[in-house]
Write a structure and sequence with these properties.
The complex is a heterotrimer.
Chain A lengths: L2 H6 L3 H17 L10 H11 L6 E7 L5 H17 L3 E6 L5 H15 L8 E6 L3 H10 L1 H4 L26 E6 L3 H13 L3 E5 L4 H9 L6 E3 H11 L5 H38 L1
Chain B lengths: L1 H23 L13 H22 L10 H16 L3 E4 L8 H20 L3 E5 L2 H17 L11 E3 L4 H15 L3 E5 L5 H11 L3 E6 L5 H7 L2 E4 L1 H11 L2 H29 L3 H6 L5
Parallel strand pairs in B: 1-2, 1-4, 2-3, 4-5, 5-6
Helix pairs in contact in B: 1-2, 2-10, 3-4, 4-5, 4-9, 6-7, 9-10
Chain C lengths: L3 H18 L7 H37 L5 H19 L15 H32 L5 H16 L2 H14 L5 H37 L11
Helix pairs in contact in C: 1-2, 2-3, 3-4
The chains are: A alpha/beta, B alpha/beta, C mainly alpha.
Chain lengths: 278, 288, 226
Amino acid sequence: MNFWDKLGTLDRRWIYLLVALSVIFPLIVPMSFKISITPEARQLFEAVDALPDSSVVMLTFDYYPSTVAETEPMATAALHHLFRKDCKVVTMTTIPLGGPSMAERVTRTIARKYNKVYGTDFVNLGYKANWVAVLKGMGTSIEAIYPADNSGAPLSELPLMATVKNYHDVSFIFVVADNDIVQNWVSIVNAQYGTPIGAGVTAVGAPKYYAFVGSGQLTGLLGGMKGAAEYELLADARGLAEKGMGMQSLAHLVIILMVIVGNIAFFAGRWSQKGKVR
Amino acid sequence: MLKHLKIRFLLTLLLTLVADYQLASAQTSDDIFRVDRINALITFVLFSIAILLYIKWAKEGKPLFIRKIAGLDAVEEAVGRATEMGKPVLFIPGIQEIDDIETIAGISILGRVAKITAQYDTPLVVPVRYPMVLAAGQEVVEQAYIEMGKRDSYNRDIVRYVAGEQFAFTATVNGMMMRDRPAANIYMGAFFAESLLLAETGNAAGSIQIAGTARPEQLPFFIAACDYTLMGEELYAASAYLSHEPLMLGGLKGQDLMKVLIVALIIIGVVLVTFGFGDAFRNLFKAV
Amino acid sequence: MRTIVPVIVAFLAGFVMIISFFFNPERTFFGRIESEVLVWVTIVGGFTLLLGVVSITRVNWHAVRIKKEGWVYNLLTLLSIFVMAIPAILPASWSQLFGDAEGSIYDWLFFHVDYPMMATMFAMLAFYIASAAYRAFRARNPEATLLLVTATLVMLWRIPMGEAFLIQVGDTLLFGYNLPESINTYIMNGANLAVQRGILIGAALGAASMSLRIMLGIERTYMGKG
């Protein structure tokens, strides 16, 4: 095996080491970059910004703890934006594993900064099994699906829910998700009830949803940590996503470098084989 | 006769589309029937007719052409490799519950693969994430072994419940791959973030890998890490492709006819929109 | 009976939901069925979660009882389930440690054990994608070259310094052409959008066909019948 063949079949642990270093380095030497805004992120921000103050917005915490690095900054930035505009926020989740807990913790932490009152300014509906039934059922009556909120308080006792009976009383739905649920929000809710929906999704899922933005079924899209950083910048709620861009940038550069090295090794190996044959 | 039927089918479609547009604009909240959803009803009826028609023709013995799907042709080759090496075949029917249509497709393919492994006496390992999938998987594999006359080779532990949480499942399966070094890994069903974790570990273990999922966001990872990948509806076609049963093939062809119709409608729409007459045509397909 | 009854139930369930979609819920019983059934499904869904817990407990307990290989991990699984579930189910009025509010055992275990473990597993993807990219993104043929070039451009586009690099390349080599905007327009909103739509339409048709086959009893493999 010559040098190029060895380089082409490099032990993957060297690659893991390089990626690890690229992620650790910005923690030691903080880096900041100018973040440009994509048209899709701007569309989402402007749609939310154009809502009249005191509009009711449904914010969904449809993500698992595994993707918090990408999705939680989106939810956080959205809450800052909504509370600053005096919007009423109804949170819910279709994720049984920790969804209600994350929604509770994130929403209450940010609500405290804006002196928002639970029950009047925001409500956490929590989780109910079978998301198809939940998404469809809320079109008729939210109370039929959620008789009580996440802490067990009957919806009839919460002042905010007296005016929010179904999707017709919701001005916008901001879905933060790491799975296919966005597609179901669009096909079940937007298609059948006409409520505008914007989405913040993981970078892996974002390419799929460009089709929905293009057809007008989604009003804006945030993709991955970059999307979260864009919304943080637009909503003036700088946080973890912006700080994470340094790590993401170096990691991407390492991967691109490895791809270039791999191709050099591939072609050089081929040429040296051809040379030997001649 | 076939051409005559197809012409009638298309003419019916055109007339109903025109009627649909006129009716849809007349919906009031007092109506019993949701006329604003008539486009969905027509689509459903046409789709059902297409599938039932092709199933009927398939039963009558009409040959139905299906193009080669390399990934499915490779299944038997992969099982053969496993038999030669004396190593097991690892099959994962996705990580979703039994009510997910991709899981049903995966279980269906498992039945076919189990018949091949039963035939060659190749060890089969099927880790699952949910108890209901465990039950369905065990039934399907047992049935396959019985049909191949290998009842004695069947073992309940072929299909095993591993873990309920996504990454706990992935970590366990990765461990199984690195210890047991299966010769072939077949991933058929719904996968999420763990797709790359599984496929990359399988690659490190030296297995031949065939994957199929209808999740477009996971396809790039499978394409990068697996030897063969079934994309989107090829997963749903797999069961029909492997079994060659007329009923299944008929369903597949019926769905293809709908796709041809959709392509034709897209082309018509593009032409109409380009020349400024698209609004009326677009309203025919408005979702309500 | 074991075959006929599930097929009949599957047919009726699907048929009723389809029919009710086309009737006005304000005027007809058929239209109201849909919302009624959806409430029932939510309730049944809750019970299937319970069923899942019972099944998990049974499977793991069996492994512990017969001391199957790796039974310690099965025991750990059982302990984890009950240590988290029991305090969460007990009324919060008995103690601040019960229930699932902030400060409870459930909340602490979730945020200090589950949350970081899940995030760590997902973070491993970064390493795996690097090794997969190193191996797979080779210009072996025209398709692989296209994959390689597109992936590299999109990876650069998604990071600020990569975007700055692309703008610089556009300014110096391409007479001021805005490369990042072109990537967004022609790759993400062009080729990617078209392909995603195609796959989505195909997958949706496949799923609809499979659903129809299940309703009509043609597809029965989910019941264990071939």
